[in-house]
Amino acid sequence: MKIIYEDENVQVLDKPAGVNSDDFEKRAHRLDKDTSGVFLIAKNDKTLEFLQKQFQDREVKKKYIALVVGSLKNTEGTIETLLGRSPGDRRKQKVFLPHDPQAEDKRSAITKYKVLQRFEKYDLIEVEPLTGRKHQIRAHMAYLGHPIAGDKLYGFKNQPLPKGLNRQFLHAKYLEIKIPDGQIKKFESELSDDLNLCLKQLKQI
User: Fold this and answer.
1) What is the pLDDT along the chain (205 residues), one digit of tens a residue?
2) CB 204 within 8 A of CB 72
3) Which residue numbers are catalytic?
4) Which of 186, 62, 82, 70 has its CA nearest to residue 126?
């Protein structure tokens, strides 16, 4: 894995798809196995606590690039729901609305998005999760009726699949966080080759 940044306390990696972030003992946050991009690891317990507190307090700025199926009604928007484990499929997160009787212990999830480019059957979007729930972006986009292209878990039956795409089109492109020496650092990852290749083959509108 390519190292984006490293000092005595942190290591920032450019994670490829297929690598399980849970395999890293001191990961400061989680990226789904098939999501590529900026991935932050602490080198000691004190740093881990320092970084994780910022994620919990919503002080970390994160941006992702995603390709979603279909054409979003609005060019930008905010999705705000509750999120919790799906009773029907334990692997998935399910969206709950506040008045839902099952929503009692569910956690708030907020996602901002904006359309960057429209294609014939897809929209390329920038996504900013303001909370850090498991599968948040994937569950929220599916809730809007526009699941992420190539997402086998949250995708709809018979949804179109871009040629050559072998995973979900989700990439962690930007992370802004304070590191233990007091500096606020910004880390970026370019879109990976497989996703770039996929975009080149799509027909623009």
Assistant:
1) 999 999 999 999 999 999 999 999 999 999 999 999 999 999 999 999 999 999 999 999 999 999 999 999 999 999 999 999 998 899 999 999 888 888 888 999 999 999 999 999 999 999 999 999 999 999 999 999 999 999 999 999 999 999 989 999 999 999 999 999 999 999 999 999 999 999 999 998 8
2) no
3) 32
4) 62
